[in-house]
Structure formats: structure tokens, C-alpha cells
Amino acid sequence: MMGIVDKIKEIDGTKVTVQRENRIFVDVEKERVIGTLYSMKLIGFSQLSVLSVIDRIADNQFEIFYVLYNRDEKVNATVRVWIDRDNPVIETAEKIYPSAHAWEREIAEMFGVKVEGNEEAGKPFILENWNDLPPMRKDFDSIKYSSEHFVFRHSEDKNE
Amino acid sequence: MEKMTQDQVRTIANMLRKRSLWMIHYCTGCGAMELPPTMTSRYDMSRLGLAPFVTSRQADILLITGYLNVKTLRRVITVYEQMLDPKYVIGFGSCALNGGVYWDSYAVIKQLDRYIPADLYIAGCMPRPEAIITAFQDLMDLIDSGKADGYKRYKRDLAYYKENQRKVLG
Amino acid sequence: MSKSYELFIGPNHPGIPGNFSVKIELEGDTVVKAKGDPGYLHRAFEKAMEGRYYIQNLALIPRICVPEPDINEAAYAMAVEDLMGIEIPERAKYIRTIVLELARVANLTFWMGSFAATLGLYTLSQWSFGDRDYALDLFNEICGARVYHMFIWPGGVRRDLPPGWEDRVLDYVKYIKERLVDYDNIFFKNVMFKYRTKGMAVVTKEQAIEWGATGPILKAAGVAQDVRKDDPYAAYGYLDFEIPTLTDGDSWSRAMIRRMELDLSLDLIEQAVKKMPKKGPVCAKMPNPLKGIVPAGETYAKVESARGEHGFYMVSDNTGKPYRVAVRGASHTHMFTIAEKVLIGQRLADVSHTLVSLDICPPEFDR
Amino acid sequence: MVSTILIAICVPLLAFAIGLTFIMFKLKITARVQRRYGPPIIQPIYNLLKLLLKEDNISHGVIFSLGPIIALAGSILAVFFIPIPGLNLLTGSGDLIALLYIMAIGSLGMALGAGNTANPNASIGISRALTLMFGYDLPLVIIVISVILQYHTTNLADIVAAQANGHWTLWTLPLSAIVGFVVTYGALGEHPFDIITAPHEVATGPMVEYGGKHLGFLMINHMFHIYIEIALFVDLFLGGASNLFWFYIKMFGVFFIMMLCDEVFLRFKIDDAVRFFWKWPTVVALISLIIVLVK
Amino acid sequence: MNMSLELLLATPFIGGLLTYIGGKVHRWVRNLIAVLFSLATVGEMAMYYNTTFKGVVWGSLFGSNLVLQTNPITWLFLFIVTAISLLVIVFSIDDMKKEEDEIVLDSYYMQLLFVEGAMVGIVLAGDLITFFMFWEIMSWTSYFLIVHGGKKSMAAGYKYIIMSVIGAYAMFIAIAMLYAKTHSLVYSDVALALSQASPSFIIWTVVLLSVGFFVKAAVMPLHTWLPDAHSEAPSPVSPLLSGVLIKMGAYGLFIVFYGLLSVNLAKNIMPSVFSTPILLYIIQWLAALSIVLATFLAIMQEDAKRLLAYSSVSQIGYVVLGLATGTSLGVAGGLFHALNHAIFKGLLFLAVGAVIYRTGTRNMSELGGLVKKMPFTFTALLLGIIALAGVPPLNGFVSKWMIYEALIQKKEVFLLIMAFVGSTGAFLYVYRLIHSLFLGQLPEKYENVKDVPILMQIPIWILALSTIVYGIFPGLAMDVIVKGMKLFGFTPIAYNLFGFPEGTAMGSLTVINIAAVLMTAFVAVFIIFILFPKTRQVSQYDNYASGQELTPDFKYNYSFGFYMSFGRVIKPILSMSIERVYNYWIDAFKIFGDYYMRRIYTGNLETYNSYIVIVVTIAAAAVLLGGKLW
Q1: Cis ω for the linkage preceding B86 (within 30 of 0)
Q2: How far A156 CA lies from chain B's nearest CA (Å)?
Q3: Range of the domain at C174
Q4: I need a labelling partner for D1 at 20 to 30 A (CA). Which of A152, E244, E530, E573 fits?
Q5: DSSP per-residue codes, C12-65
Q6: Is there a contact between A34 and A19 (Cβ–Cβ < 8 Å)?
Q7: Number of helices (H), then strands (E), in chain A
């Protein structure tokens, strides 16, 4: 069991936290993230489960996390990287994990993260004709947007 | 005299229409999950003359099965406008009625009948097959009495509907 | 002008499972390009959950995946339990197992009907949708709802089982087993079924691993990966079962894997009902739900849905509302990474059954 | 003269009525096999009249509207060339070979109308329909030739007359009759040959843009189509009938067996369907043809 | 009176020369002369129509008289030749405007009239020398016509002329053999000589003559020139090639088998299969293979004119199949189909030419939706395809029906099956043609297309109406055919104006009843249809697309690979192309040339053709000298 943690620790610039026996968190710098992911794949983390973003608005940062799964050791590892919220740029991981392509399209749309190297990131994916802030950011107020764009039905409303 | 025959024709036509309602095969939301049981062997809505049909040209009823987000709304309007008169809309579930649990969502519209005229709503999330069948029977009564006139309202208040649609769809 | 032309499969098309659109480009009758177009079911779940208390979110989570809502409840509950450090009672574990497996049976019978319909056999879909309905009746008994149960919640399950429910579950299992003989005769042993699906839409073992497939796609390609076995949750650790695998990775193998999983699920239900403690609490002691504060932390909880690995990545900041919930639906990868590649070179007649064979569930990736 | 006009009006109506009752039974039989109760028995009439009384109809051009009309006119024409008990109608003006081509007028009309919709689903449906027609045509001509050689005439009325007193072709040429059944089944487009309208693939194919009265006319055409195909089968292989009642019973028997088959088959792919028709039905039909030639 | 035939023969040639000269004055003078002279030819033909001339001597060569003669069959073919030529010339006036080089146009019209004259000569010929002379004129002038069609047409024309030359050599050898035997090549003398000749001599001459006719009639396996030539030729030339020129091959076969060699004689000297002389039986099979294989090939084409070209190979198969049955009904059917094919194939090529004129492309995947823009051309083409598919009540049906009945009478079931299959296959490719051109999505770039000018409409519509006339009144053509066939020793078949009564065949046919009932049914249904609520027009973008909105930048027209699924079924058949056999031999000859002959000839096609010519010559010389080869 500890073998896999050691292997991850050997990768340059990683900070490993073991939460449970099969939940590992790996923190890396923005510059090293692709290299880390590549090394992770080499040591058996062959499946990308989730790739998404946490909007750490208090620190003015985006936390991007990659949940990886090692099929042989049955271990989930989460690679986390913090990037600047004002200039959110990340390199694509689609060369390493093909399934990252669609996740990256999603974070590009929902958080406004620029994904370098992914041609389709930034094109409309789930939303259509969206011209407001990326909706998943913490500073986007969903209720305000709704009340501006849609009319709520109140009990006194008559069906016209 | 001529008016009378026209009325008679309309009465007969309504009588036929209510007995043969074809429903468009378009699952706009999660409410569509209760349609297969309604359609198939256990509840068998074909007893009432209802049948699922594929394209917008063939169908009479448009079921808005649950929430309707903005992207789907555009398609729903396209489909609705392609359907041939007389056509009926059933708002299905509380989301179509007032947004339901998605009341604060930026993507889901809150009132269906601001965009296309709904003849009937079914409450509940999600409505049970029994409720759906009751709703169809209510719609039949409405058709029989000539009150299911959503398509006429849409033509009459086209400006109103188009204005609302433009506001949401941009 | 190019030789190819464009065709929309969906959203208003019987060949698409749910409200979803695949834009395909065809040359003659052969697909040269396929592009999924999601978003028709986008309701902003992840955004909405950030604005609600943990207990309120219970109403939202089953609606993420319509055909099999219980996996969402289970994964959500497990994530919260993980963050709070709660261990749930034994009986609750078994009840969860039974409910989850029953939901899987409902989903698989539903899938069978859809799959048969895409291949032109409407009789099976009529039969199996009807038989699925009896499973919904069982859910109706325990929680009063047919589709969205909100039965599994953090700490265990919402209430104890009604008396005699276990027997009725066993009766249902017996009934389905009898019906499966008919299903096999009309569909799974049908020569034309093999003819239509053998060698179609192949995802080989290497491809499945490279593209990140999970669930039946991976099992059909020959990898026995299953969260129930690898990272046991609920009562799966106490039960005795083997994960079925096949090697071809084609449409037929995936269908047969699902057929075997149906057998497995029925078997698991029987085992769980037998082994379940007859008495005991069904819910751990939880703090006041309205003030329920979850300690800060990050966790990833996963369960095995009928489509593959279904996970919740939950971040808490020591308040009553989750800071961020990310949902991982198996269909996300299956559609945008696998289906778009597998569809290329397929014939138009096979597009629909390929999509259903990969079991694309749009609400999972639209959210 | 009056009787001629009467016949000219009544025969198509009769064909329509027979086709209509078959559709009625079809819905019920299907429902029963699928463990359902099924729609009311006169549901097809409601459907048809509702479609015809739709207030709004769309058209993509003149040919779009003419398509169902040509199809229906072609079907009515074909009805007059199939002898019914007691009436040989126009069998003297065109024989079996002419009938095979007259039956194509309907398909051609529908193909033209569907093509004018500018919808790829419709075009694919038509491409499949014509390919399927090419597929079942090969065994069809072989069995038709074997019947012609058996009775030394191409006149359908004479063929029916030659089978009087129970000397049905079904007994004398059983292999041809079996192939004839398969071909008729394919021509009706039931499972597994419902490739043309396959909703999950091409969204009802040629009918994709048809609604309202156009669709109503296509449904009427379908009823005629059922009548023509099955009546031709009955005339060729089951010896026609001495009165209308037996004619109807024979036709219904054939149709009933077909409906039972309909519910248990999956759908072919179009090239597989052609391969199927060109394999076993053709071989069996050729064997039957050789038997006739040697005899 | 005797001058009349020579005048008829000379008119087109004189017209051709005058046209060329007229072109130097002004193009309208040239066009007028061309039309007037072709009109004059038709007029002369009509004036003497159905009068029989016997043996009009117009010269002599090598001691053999050069003779012109007519009989009803001649008039049938003369009618085809002159009428189609006139229509083609009228059509050319507008269609060839795009050709900027006026000198090229001058020679184009001259060649058109020369081809017409040559074909008139072939039909009128009463002896083999006249026949061969005009045959060669026809081959060469038509070659020049084909190469008007642009760059690709050069290669196509080259292929055509090489194969024609091979055919001509074969014919020439046969004629030489006959001359050596009889010293007179007048048909009656030749027929007399053949009746006393040895069987092997007869077979050799007949086979060699047939090879020449087969090349021209494009019967498989000698059809390979046709698809290229017909599709690459200019639009107005294609109907002339397809409608008329290949009929000369059929006419030649008719003359050889029923003029020079009678059926009875043939039966005496060779074994019979299905009461058909074996030689004719083999020809029947070649024709039937042509029908089926060319139909398959036509189904798979992507080019409108190539599709029609393969369809021509298939339809000429029916003509040859009918002619080779040897029974009255079959031969009459074959001759009638020759007329019908000239009408509907001329119509189809002209209508497609009209589309090309307006859109500039014949690639079917680039076209579509033109029915809104060119309704008249569409209607004419619709009639053409219905006739081609053999659907009653148009003309193609009647002649095919006769051929089927003839085959049933002879119990030639396998040929019959093949004929039927070819006819059903025709449904596929004709629908594909009309769908890809006129139905489906209208591309944006053709938004401003208009129907073609009136001068192009007239020929199209004359032919379109003819399909109806000859379909409903087959008796019009049967008058001539039956009368002519009597002269060749056939028992006349019973017919009436509207069809065939009982006893002619195994069934009866009255086309006017079919047409009348169809029209009545159509009118009745139409009236019922318009009684119901009105329809409204919608645009082609207001269309079911799974709920999506369509915009003009989508290409949603299914036209490329229309029968790709079917193509998978017949793939094993299509891969067995006869061209590959030829290419194999080309390669073999090249290797032979490279290593053993030390590159005497370096070319590709020419090398192989030269060798074939040499081989054929040697073989024929051996026969001629030795008398026997086996």
C-alpha cells in the first residue's frame, strides 16, 4: 500500500497527503501539473475520473483538481493545483487523458479557465448564447440572474 | 345555415381529435421518465387513443416533461411552431409550472406559458402515471368543449409570446 | 461542396436516449464525424447545491440522473458521512444495498427495453417497461415515490422498511427471474440480435483503458473493475459475488454484460435480504439537519452505477452548505470520449443502438 | 354502364374497407402480444379522420402534395387488376407482369413526394425502400414466373380459375408459396423489414415531413397496399375464393400469421435484408422454378 | 423518283458543308442552315415515309453495285435518326452558346449533320460496302463530336475510336471474306451466298460482323468506351450517341441475323437451345448480362451523365435481347424498344443537359432542389424516368412487356429473371437521378437559377410527349414494325392501336385502359384531396431536424452515395470489372513489348490495340486463306 505513496512522493514537486487508505491528495505547482500527471499515469493512474475547478474566491485563486484512479492498487489520487483567478490559464491534459478533453471544455465554459492546447475549450458546450460571467464562479449570482431574465410565477398571477 | 354546419363540423372534429391524440416523442426533461410506463403494458395509454409519434408534423400534443432550460426552449418553440393546428401543450410537473426545485437556477425558465401557450398543467414531481392519464382525460374534455385553444391564443397573441421568447433567447 | 451531409440525432428523435443531440456527418450511410451537443438538460445543479443546506440538497441530488436516482443519493450520503466521520448502522447498510440493487434492476430492465427498441423489437420494451414498474411499486412502499426516492440520506436511510417488504422484494426477484426466461428467448438468444450487435461498436481493452471507460464498457472489454468490489461501500463488502467480464468489447458483449449484471443484482438482493439484521437502527445519530455543519475538507465518494463509476467530489468549508460539489457521471466520458470516436465508421442504422449500448445518460453530464 | 360505374366505385371502397379492418386487427393483435389491452377497435378510423380534418397542412412544394395523390391513384389502379370473387375487373387489360409494374406506381409517387421534402431522413428512407424493393423483387419474379409456367398464362383471372376446386398453388408449388409469403411479408414492411420507416434510425423515413391530410392519404394508401399485397398472394397461391367471405377469411389468415411474426423480429439492416432475400428465398424459388420447368 | 433516296442521303451532307460556310458569315446564318437542313431531312423522310424502294443503284465499287434500299424497318430507324438529330440541333443552338470559339462551333454543326447523314446512309444501305463506308464516316465524325466536350473527352474519344476501329476491322474482314466468296455485296446476293456456304464460314462471318456491331451497340463486354464517351461528350451530343448511334449496332445485328442470315438457316447449321440458334442464344446471354451488370453499375454512379450512360448499356441490352429471341414478338419488342429508348434516353440526356446548362455541373452530390426553379424540365425528366423504368402507361413499359412475354413463351426463365431484375434496378437509378437533381435541398448558389430557354424546352417536350403517345398507342409503331417484319419472314403478331389482344402473348394488354383508370383515379383522389383543409407552403429550412433549426449553411441533402448500402451487397460483382481484364492484357502486352520486342511500341492503349488489330487480322487472314481454323 505505501508503495504507491512512495512512488508518488518520488515525483518532483509533489506534496502528498494521505486522507484514507485509498484517498490520496497530491498538491503541485502550476508549472509541474502536466509533468506530474504524466508521471502519475506512468505509475498506474490510468483513469481520470473528474477534472473540475473550485473557486477559492477568498484567496483569489482557482483550485483545479484531477481525480485519478489506479486500477491495480485500487487507489484514488487527487492532483490539485492552484492558479491565479485573474489570469486562469492551465495547460491541457488531453494528451495524457483523452477524457480530459470534455472536462476541460466544461471548466472553460463554467469557470472561464483558459485551457491551452485544447482547441475546443472556450467554444459553447453546455450553454448557448451565454454572455454573462461564467456561471459557476462564486461571484456569479444565480438568483439575481434568474430574477432579471425570467418572470417568477406568484400565486396572484392569473394564467393569461 | 353555413355557420351551423361549420359548428357541427367543428364539433365532430373535436370529438375525433380527442379520441386520437398523438404525442410527440420528445423528452424535454426528467418527467419523461414516467412516460414509458404510461405508454407501455402496465398503464397502456393507447387505450385512450394516445400514441407516441416521432416528428413534429405528425403529432398533436407537445408534452413539456418537466423543467425547460433555455437551450431546450429554443428547440421546443421550433417544434411547437412546426406542429400542425390544432395542437395542444401539456406542462408536466411543477418545474414547468413555476420552476420547481430549480427556482434559483440561471438556466431553467420559470413559467412555461409565457413562451408557448399551455393548455393544461400536471402538478407533482414527478407526476405519477395515474396523474398523467387523468390529465389526458382532462385534456380530452377540454378539447371536446372547445376550451383547449392554446394554438389559437398563440396565433392571436403572437407578439406577446415572441417578445417573451426574445427576452430569454436573445 | 463536400460529399458529406449533416444529420441531427436528437433532441427530438427516438434514436437518442433522452434530451440530447448528436450531430453526425455522413458520407452515404457511413458516419465520418460525430459531435455530441449537451446542455439540453442543464439545470445548474452544482451551482444550486452551493446555495443550499446539506439537508435541502437531498431534494436535488436524485434528479441528477433520472433512470437510476439512488446512486446519487448514496454517493452524496457517503461523501457527507466521509467528511463528518460517521459510520452508519449495519441494517442501514443492507437496506442501502437492497435499494441500490433494486434501482439497478429497474435501470437495467429499462435499458433492455430501450436497447431492444433501437434494434426494432418493440415487444421486449413493452414487456420490460411493464416489469420494471413493479420495482417502482416497491420503492413506492418504502418512500411514497416511484422515481425520486430521497430514501438514502447521510447517516443511513430515512426510515425503516415497512413490514413484509423483504418478502415482496423476494417475490419480485422471483417474478423477474421467470420473466427473464422470456426475455432471453425473444431477445438475448435471438439470432438476429447477435447478427446486429456482434462486432459492432468495438471498444477494445486498450482503448477502454486509454479512454477512461468504466462500468459495462470496461467489463465487456475484459477488465473486471467495479466499485462494489474494489472499494466496497454499503454492505457489498459482506456479500459474495464475482464481477462478470467478457472479452470482445462489442455491442453484443456490453448487452450480455448488462444481462449478467441483472442476474448478479438479483442474486445480491437475495443475499442481502437473507443476511440483513432483522432489527436495529437504520440511521446514525446526526446533528440537527438545519444547523448541520460539516467539517471543512475535501473528499471523493464513488459508487457503481449501472453505467460505471459515479462519484461526488465534495468540498466543505465548515458551514451548513457545501462549498463545491462536483458530480462525475460515467456517461460524461462515455459520450464525449468514447461514443464520438466509436461512432465514426458506423452505419446510420447502428448509431442509435451504439449510443444506447454505451448507455449514454444525458442528465449525468448536463447536470 | 351503371353497373360499370358502380363497380368502379365499390371495388376501391371494398379494398379500402378490407385494409382498414386489417389495420384495426393489427393494433389489437400487437397489443395482445405485448401484454397490453390495446386501443379501441375503431381507433384507425379516428386517427384517419382526425388527420384529414387537421386545420393546418404544410407543403414543401407541388410534388410534395402530389406524392400521396399519385401513390393513392397508383394503388387504386392496382386494385382493379386483382380479381376478386365474381369479378375479373381489368385483368384482361393488363396481365400479371403489367400488375407488377403498376404496383410500383404507388411507391414511385410516395418516393417523389418524400424526396421533395428536402429532408435527409426522407431521402434515406426512400433509398432504403427502393433497395428493399430491389431485394424482394428477385425472389418475387422467380415465383411469379414459376406460377406463370405452371398455368401457361399470365392472365391473373385464368390463374385463379385454374386453381378452382382446391387445386391451390400452395399444394402444387409449396416452395413457391413459402417464398411468396416471405416476399409479401417483406413488401408489407413489417419487422424485420421495417427498415424504411425505422423510427430509431431515420425518424419514420419518407413520412418524416408528412402530417395532416397528407399523412392521412398515406395511411389510406397503406391500407390499399395491405389489400393489394395480400390479395395478390391469395389469388396466386390460395386459389382466390368463390365468394367475398372466404376471400376475406383467407386474407385474414395470411395477415394474422404475418402479424404474429411481426412482433418477434428485430430489424434488419438494409444490406442484410437484400442479402437475405437474395440468399434463401431466391434459392428456394429457383428450386421451385426448376421443378416447374422439369414437370 | 429514284433520285429521292439519294437526295435524302445527300441533304445532311450538303447541309453540313453549307453550315460550315455559313458560319463564316454569321452564327445565326449557320444555325439557321443547320436547322433548316435537318428539318429538310425530316421532311423528306416524312414525304417518302413507308414507301418501299428496292435496290436504287447509286454507284459501283470493285464490281459490286452500291445500292440504297428501304423497307418499313428502315423507315423506323430513319425516323429515329432524323427526328432525334433535328431535336439535337435545335437544342444545340442555345446549349452550345457557351462555346466561345466560333470556328469550333462551325465544325461542330458540320459534324452533327455529317453524323446524321452517315447514319441515314447506314440505314439506307442496300449492300455491305455502302454500309461499311457510312459506318466509318459515322465513327470518325462522332469521334470528333465527342472530343468537343473538353479535356477529359479527348481520352474518352480516343478510347471510343480505338474500339470502333477494332470493330470496324472485324467487320471489314468479314466483308472481305464475303466479297471473296460472292463478288457482290448486295444484301440479297450475300443472303443467297450464305445459304449455300459452309457452316464454319457462316459462323466466322457472322461473328466478325457481330463484333463490329457489338462494339457500337456497347454490348458487354465491349461496352467500356460508352460510359466515358457518353458522359464526356457535350450535352447535345450525348442523346445522339445514346439514342441513335448505338441503335446502329442493333440495326446491324438485325440486318445480319434476319436480313443476311435467316433464323431457319441458322437453325440448320448450328445446334439450338430453347429453340434458339446457339449463336443467338449466346448473344441473348451477353445482352442479359449487359442488362444486369450495367444496371448495377448505373446504380453506383455519382455523375448524372455517367449514370445515364450505363443505363444506355442496360437498355440496349433489352433491344439486343429482344432482337436475339428470334420470335416475332421478341424481335418486334426489341425494335420497338429501340425506338422507345431513343425517345426517352434522348429526353433524359437533353433534360440533364438542360440542368448542366444552368448549373454547370453534372456531379449529383452538388445538385438538388431544382424542381422549384426548373419545373418544366423536371416534368419532362419525370416522364422520361417513368418511361425508362418501364412503368405503365408510358412507352418503355410496352416494349419491355413484349420482350418479357416473348421470353416467357420460349421458357427462357433465367434470361427473363435477369431482364426483370434490370428493370427493377432501373427504379433505383432513375429515382436517384431525379432526386439528386430536382428533389432534396436546393443549395444556396442555385437560388437564382431559371428554367432553360424555349429553344431547349421544345426538343425536350416533343420527346416527353412522345413517351406518352407511344405508350398509350403502341399500335402506331407496331404498324411499321409488323409490316417490316413480314418482309423478313416473320409471322405477323396481332396488335391493335392500344395494345395487344389475347393470343399475341400469354396475356393481353390494353394500355389505354390502364391510362384511363389511372387518370380517373388520379382526378378522383385529387378532388377528394382538395376538399380537405388547405395547405400552406413552407420554406425548405422549416423542416424536421430533430427539433434543431436549420440554416442555409447546413448541407443536409442526402445525395452522395445514395445506394452505398446496396453497393455493399453487390461489391463482389462490381469488383469483377471487365476493364480490369483489359488493363491486365495491356500490362501483359507492355511487358511483352518491353522485354521481347524491345520497345517497338511504347504507348499504353495504342500498343495494346495495335496488337489486337494484328492478331485479329492474322486470324481472319488465316480463315480467309485456309477457309477453316478449327
Answers
A1: yes
A2: 13
A3: 5-366
A4: E530
A5: S-TTSSSS-EEEEEEETTEEEEEEEE--TT---HHHHHHTS-HHHHHHHGGGGS
A6: no
A7: 4, 7
The total domain count for chain E is 3
The answer to whether residue E520 sits within a structural domain is no
Domain positions in chain A are 2-149
What pTM does this model have? 0.88
Query: What is the per-residue pLDDT for D35?
Result: 83
The CA distance from C219 to C248, in Å, is: 10
**Pairing mode, strands A114-116 and A89-91:** parallel
- Asked whether residue E586 is domain-assigned, the answer is yes
- Residue B124 forms contact with C (CB below 8 Å): no
> Does E295 lie in the same domain as E216?
no
Interface residue D294 vs chain E (CB under 8 A) = no
User: Is residue E23 assigned to a domain?
Assistant: yes
Residue C323, classed as helix, strand or coil, is strand
Secondary structure (3-state) at C272: helix
Question: Is residue E327 one of the residues assigned to a domain?
Answer: yes
Say yes or no to pLDDT of E582 above 70.
no
Task: Report which of E522, E471, E485, E477 is spatially closest to residue E71, judged by C-alpha positions.
Answer: E485
Contact D119, E548 (CB under 8 A): no
Name every residue whose Cβ is closer than 8 Å to that of residue D59 and which is 6 or more positions away in sequence.
D65, D214, E535, E536, E537, E538
Q: Do C1 and E562 touch (CB under 8 A)?
A: no
Q: Do B82 and E544 touch (CB under 8 A)?
A: yes
Taking alpha carbons only, the member of D136, D95, D142 closest to residue D292 is: D142
Distances (CA, A) of D157 to A155, D83, D93, E550: 75, 6, 11, 53
| Last residue of one domain, picked from the residues E432, E458, E493 | E493
Min Cα–Cα distance to chain B from A53, Å: 19
For residue B126, cis peptide bond before it (omega within 30 degrees of 0): yes
Nearest C-alpha of chain A: how many angstroms from C214?
9
- The set of cell numbers assigned to B24 is 410527440
Cα B2 from Cα A146, distance rounded (Å)? 51
> Which residues of B fall within a CB distance of 8 Å from E547?
26, 56, 75-76, 78-79
CB contact under 8 A, D120 and E532: no
CATH number of the domain encompassing residue C194: 1.10.645.10
Domains and CATH numbers, chain B: 2-169 (3.40.50.12280)
Residues E276, E264 share a domain? no
The range of the structural domain enclosing residue E605 comes to 578-626
CATH architecture for residues A2-149: 2-Layer Sandwich (3.30)
Instruction: State which amino acid sits at residue D263.
Output: E
Reported as a single tens digit per residue, the pLDDT across C264-295 is 989 888 888 888 888 888 887 777 665 667 77
Euclidean distance between CA atoms E118 and E135, whole angstroms: 7
Interface of B to D at Cβ within 8 Å reads 9, 13, 16-17, 19-20, 22, 25, 40-41, 44, 46-47, 49, 51, 54-58, 60, 83-86
Number of folded domains that form chain C: 1
What pLDDT, in 10s, does the model give residues A32-80?
888 888 888 888 888 888 888 888 888 888 888 888 888 888 888 888 8
Nearest CB among B103, B106, B113 relative to A159 is that of: B113
Nearest-CB residue to A98 (from C48, C210, C225): C210
**Residues in a beta bridge with B62:** B89
How many CB atoms lie under 10 A from the CB of residue C320?
16
Which of D55, D58, D121 should we substitute to test contact with B (largest number of B Cβ atoms within 10 Å)? D55
Contact of C179 with C127, CB cutoff 8 Å: yes
Q: Which residues of E touch C (CB under 8 A)?
A: 365-366, 443, 544-548, 554-562, 564-565
Convert the pLDDT of each residue in E499-510 to its tens digit: 787 767 777 888
> Span E258-282, mean pLDDT?
75
